[in-house]
Prior knowledge:
By secondary structure, the chain is α+β, with helices and mostly antiparallel strands. It contains 2 helices and 8 strands, in the order H-H-E-E-E-E-E-E-E-E. The strands form 2 sheets. A 4-stranded antiparallel β-sheet has the order 3-2-1-5, covered by helices on one side. Strands 4-6-7-8 form a 4-stranded antiparallel β-sheet, covered by helices on one side. A hairpin with a 7-residue loop joins strand 6 and strand 7.
Amino acid sequence: xxxxxxxxxxxxxxxxxxxxxxxxxxxxxxxxxxxxxxxxxxxxxxxxxxxxxxxxxxxxxxxxxxxxxxxxxxxxxxxxxxxxxxxxxxxxxxxxxxxxxxxxxxxxxxxxxxxxxxxxxxxxxxxxxxxxxxxxxxxxxxxxxxxxxxxxxxxxxxxxxxxxxxxxxxxxxxxxxxxxxxxxxxxxxxxxx
Length: 193
């Protein structure tokens, strides 16, 4: 192996001990710290919004499943809040979990002999899911796929999904029309208060 020529930049650096001074190194670390301090809150917001989107999509897809199961079974299928996956608990918010079941007696709540189609239990909810008056306690799909209250009136409503502890960020809504179709909409933080 040949040694570098005397006039080359590598040889000149070796002779003069080229490198960084302590001041230059501290300045570089300071610049990186400032950039990291700017990036961390933005990254936290991105993670929180991804969590919101994921929770909204999970809820939306389960509503779509209940809708399609009602049509497929040619029978009424309901979805209700259920933190334990065993029985409906209408006073508990939807964020702790929900249950989809075949509603044989059209009551909007599950009886012991009614078949459970799917259970979703959320052990550590990071979002709040609140339904307005028509969908606070249950959503009921008929064999035709439309939504009806147990009284027979059409059931349309809106669920608002917000991040817990981060109400300043945007939120999402899952809107159900009387035909049983759902859609997701972005909303502002004002609806989360």
